[in-house]
Design brief:
Blueprint: E1 10-15, H1 19-30, H2 32-39, E2 43-49, E3 66-67, H3 71-74, E4 79-84, H4 92-101, E5 105-108, H5 111-128, E6 132-133, H6 144-151, E7 157-163, H7 166-178, H8 182-191, H9 200-203, H10 206-220, E8 230-231, H11 239-247, E9 250-261, E10 264-275, E11 287-294, E12 298-305, H12 309-325, H13 332-339, E13 353-363, H14 368-378, E14 383-388, E15 405-412, E16 415-416, H15 417-429, E17 433-442
Parallel strand pairs: 1-2, 1-4, 2-3, 4-5, 5-6, 8-10
Antiparallel strand pairs: 7-9, 7-11, 9-10, 11-12, 13-15, 13-16, 13-17, 14-15
Helix pairs in contact: 1-12, 4-5, 5-10, 7-8, 14-15
This protein binds L-homoserine (HSE).
Length: about 450
């Protein structure tokens, strides 16, 4: 039990009343009896801090609850728990530190903050005899932090494969099922409240990578910085690649992988071809899916909405109830005791071994395919299939000298990332190969 547990009402202050903050406030205000039953004591929302008091937020708060003064929460002796929902590193970090030092427990949905400062903040929380809970930081409504930290405690986890960014998955779904152009799909994700304040964090793979690092630290006791593994987003994909993948019997997902093989940690976040029918290929829309392999439990799957107001509020409020009732969450320093081993070394990217999907836009002239396949062959990369469609506008009666550009799509057999990079460098030198050159791994 934490010091905050008891029968006294728990005063709550929310910092940040955006999409998620409004959702949390709504649950607290609409379900006070449920909160009291689950927490074992009344949970009272005292203040919600916003930057701009005049902005409409789609929620009616009791008079005097809204403030633009963060000190009204951080200096309030009746507030025992602070919910940080402003996102980003600063001033979120300062607010969380001040809250802990003021003797308040903290709940946050901020994965960038936990990625950057999770260790230090958890250590500070322990020093203060307080807790910092962050279930909502990974996969929103899917209870994955609690599951890895508690329900799977009997296991040594050996592998994590996951779709962890709801926005990217939503965009891929909208593009491939509804033919929506990329920019329109990004805008729709923002309107639905799925995307980060800066949606580039979603589409360039950073958000999924933050979440994977957090899960990796919980599962393996190894903290891996973002620059130590391949991180690529969906922002370089074109609709054509989704269609070619489909034609070949695959779906494209932004797949996050961390698994231990031969004592090394294989880790990457990349758009990946997954065979149609595989459970990970069927996850659509804003949903996340996480597959965990444990040495006792075997393989388990978790899925649910990975972004959005209600799903994220569900996780934040669950943390709040846990904290209020004294069921403290696992934190990083405690995990160090769990794992008590040297960090697992990360497999160098060049040594990753997998199959690849390649697309080169080439000028449709004699010997082009031979030039490309020759380079692949000399690098020791074996081709599994080749697909080239006619350029749509071929006009045999035209005298034009302009040569059409055609996509050359190649599936390779298993090779290494290092061989692939060398081949790609050579192929880029071919005068008849045009941008973009697309390379995606194939799962399995
Ligand atoms: N922007 C995030 C996502 C929200 O799309 O997954 C939840 O972390």
């Amino acid at each position: 039990m934490t010091e905050s547990a008891g029968t006294e009402p728990l005063g709550v202050g929310i910092i940040g009343l955006g999409t998620v903050g409004s959702g949390v406030a709504r649950v607290l205000l609409e379900h006070p009896e449920r909160m009291q039953r689950r927490a074992g004591r009344p949970v009272v929302l005292r203040k919600a801090v916003v930057r701009d008091l005049s902005r409409s937020r789609g929620i009616e708060l009791p008079a005097g609850m809204l403030t633009d003064q963060v000190d009204e929460v951080l200096n309030d002796p009746e507030t025992g728990l602070v919910v940080e929902l402003i996102g980003g590193l600063s001033p979120a970090r300062e607010f969380v530190e001040r809250a802990l030092k003021a003797g308040k427990d903290v709940v946050t949905a901020n994965k960038a903050l936990i990625y950057e400062h999770g260790d230090a903040l958890c250590a500070l929380a322990r020093e203060q005899g307080k807790t910092i809970a962050f279930e909502a930081a990974v996969a929103a409504g899917v209870p994955i932090i609690g599951s890895v930290g508690q329900a799977l405690a009997a296991n040594q986890i050996t592998g994590i494969e996951a779709v962890l960014n709801g926005t990217s998955n939503f965009i891929l779904t909208e593009m491939s099922h509804n033919g929506l152009p990329y920019d329109a799909a990004v805008q729709l994700a923002q309107e639905r409240g799925y995307a980060e304040a800066d949606p580039s964090m979603d589409v360039d793979g950073t958000d999924a990578a933050h979440k994977l690092v957090i899960l990796t630290q919980l599962a393996f006791g190894t903290r891996v910085p973002l620059d130590a593994f391949i991180r690529q987003g969906i922002d370089t994909l074109e609709l054509a690649d989704l269609q070619y993948a489909r034609e070949l019997g695959y779906r494209v997902k932004l797949l996050a992988v961390a698994r231990i093989r031969n004592g090394l940690l294989e880790m990457h976040v990349e758009p990946t071809l997954i065979r149609r029918g595989h459970p990970m290929s069927t996850i659509e829309d804003v949903y996340n899916r996480i597959q965990i392999d444990g040495d006792v439990v075997g393989r388990v799957w978790f899925s649910g909405m990975g972004a959005g107001q209600a799903a994220t509020a569900s996780a934040v409020v669950a943390d709040l109830i846990d904290t209020a009732s004294g069921r403290t969450r696992l934190n990083f320093p405690l995990l160090d005791l769990w794992h008590q081993r040297e960090p697992v070394p990360v497999l160098p990217a060049d040594e990753l071994s997998r199959r690849y999907y390649l697309r080169y836009n080439v000028i449709d002239r004699p010997h082009m395919m031979a030039d490309v396949t020759d380079i692949l062959g000399r690098q020791g990369i074996s081709i599994a299939s080749v697909m080239q469609h006619e350029a749509p506008e071929i006009d045999c009666t035209s005298d034009s000298d302009e040569e059409p550009i055609v996509p050359l799509v190649i599936m390779t057999h298993r090779t290494t990332e290092g061989q692939m990079r060398s081949a790609d460098r050579e192929i880029a030198q071919l005068q008849a190969v045009r941008m973009p050159r697309v390379r995606m791994p194939v799962d399995g």
